[in-house]
Amino acid sequence: MFCSPKIRFFAFMLQMHVIASACLAESNTEEAAETFLLQMLAKQQENKSVQAQIKQIKRLPTLSQPLEVSGAMSLIPGKALRWEVGAPPRHILIYYGGNTTFLDQRARTAEQLVPTDRRARMLRMILGVGPDSGLNYLKDKFRIKSIDRRKGYATVVFEPEAPMMKAVLRRIVVNFDLETGWMESVEWEQVDDSTTRLEFETPRLNEQLSPSLFTFDRRAYKKEEKRNHKR
Q: Is residue 59 part of a domain?
């Protein structure tokens, strides 16, 4: 079919306009996502402490029913974390002073974890405890796939950008309370189709936390050697 040069020129210009509009929309979306995360980060930084009951739900492709466990969390953002699994606690993870310790209440062992240990790495990253963690880390290392705002809440889907992380992690889904910036739930989905979901129930903000929450009596535990649980 023959097209005149004028028609071909207008067709070319129309195509360029569509491409430019798409690029501009993507740029605006990225800017909006960046602005949203900065707003949530600012709100989170207003919280001096967070306490909450937690529920961890893990789904494995090999199991027909999810694995559920309850616990509790005490957090001083950026500084200290106490994470209890089970009621009464079977395992306790404590981050304080740059060190992460894993307490096994049944075996009465205390193990200092290396920074890459998988038992603590994801928690620290999500909760913003220690280096390479929090929303700033997510903003730099993940791409925001989508933001779905509802009344008072927002669901944000993060996708990893680094090839090494892509090999393990498919995406992270975070539900934010827009008033406090705190996370109602976090779910990470791995490439093997397993998922882990953390739900924070009735969080209490800005209460005075005793320093004893982030210490333990070393005499009551047997010391274990450091073991690298890096994936």
A: yes
CA-nearest of 183, 125, 134 to 154 is: 183
What is the distance between the alpha carbons of residues 222 and 171, in angstroms, rounded to a whole number?
Answer: 37
Give Cα separations from 215 to 78, 204, 208, 212, 221 (angstroms): 16, 21, 16, 5, 13
Considering Cα of 213, then 215, then 218, then 224, what sign does the dihedral take? positive
Domain that residue 65 falls in: 47-224
Residue 209 sits in a domain whose CATH number is: 2.50.20.10
Question: CB–CB of 50/182 below 8 Å?
Answer: yes
- Tens of pLDDT, residue by residue over 54-111, are 999 999 999 999 999 999 999 888 788 899 998 889 999 998 888 889 999 999 999 9
26 domain residue, yes or no: no
Q: Which helix (H) or strand (E) holds 63?
A: none
Q: Is 19 exposed, middle or buried (0-12, 13-18, 19+ CB in 10 A)?
A: exposed
CB 190 within 8 A of CB 168: yes
* Mean pLDDT (whole number) for 15-44: 57
Task: Write the CB contacts of 153 (distance below 8 Å, at least 6 apart in sequence).
Answer: 175, 176, 177, 178, 184
**CA distances in angstroms from 194 to 18, 41, 71, 147, 161, listed in the order given:** 39, 28, 21, 23, 20
Kindly state whether residue 96 falls inside one of the protein's structural domains: yes
Q: Count structural domains, the chain.
A: 1
113 in a domain, yes or no? yes
For the entire predicted model, the pTM comes to 0.75
pLDDT interval class at 127 (50, 70, 90)? confident
